[in-house]
């Protein structure tokens, strides 16, 4: 049915977004005085599923915050429970939480570089928001889902393999990330 096809395409687009991490945007968000923990839902975009980096806006300057493990954050920036200052680092904690340290002593604006899920297709005229080559794997994953539904497992496996190959091609067309741009300074 058309509804099942649209559902399969939307699930395929979400899977592509998750697997490639290529659908990115920036979100500006103010940190609250004394609050160090935020969830993706708090940031205000329910489509966020990953954080690539966070900049602290300090006057007219963007400061790239360090992305540390929770243990490193605690050792280096959170030893005192009541200490507040200019945040210097953050960590991901669990699937959708970010912790800053030190806790902000004033309201700071931040700019988050995040991966997001695409908006779902609703109308027949809706199009995939991602450009080529990211559009290529989507129909193969949708076909995989439809073949699973029909219990045609051999054909489903072939479509999944084609999806994985094309998603890999799209992902490998991206430039890598630098974990800390200030290392060695």
Description:
It is a single chain. The protein has five helices and ten strands. The strands form three sheets. A four-stranded antiparallel β-sheet has the order 1-10-3-4. A four-stranded mixed β-sheet has the order 2-8-7-5. A two-stranded parallel ribbon has the order 6-9. The chain has 185 residues and is of the alpha+beta class. The chain is elongated and about 60 Å long. The model has no long low-confidence stretch (mean pLDDT 92).
Largest sheet: 4 strands, antiparallel
Shape: elongated
Unreliable runs: none
The computed structural class is alpha+beta
Overall strand count: 10
Summarize it:
The chain has five helices and ten strands; from the N terminus they run αββαβββαβββββαα. The chain has helices spanning 2-20, 40-43, 70-77, 138-149, 153-172, and strands spanning 24-31, 37-39, 48-58, 61-64, 66-67, 84-85, 89-92, 97-101, 103-104, 108-116. β3 and β4 (61-64) form a beta hairpin.
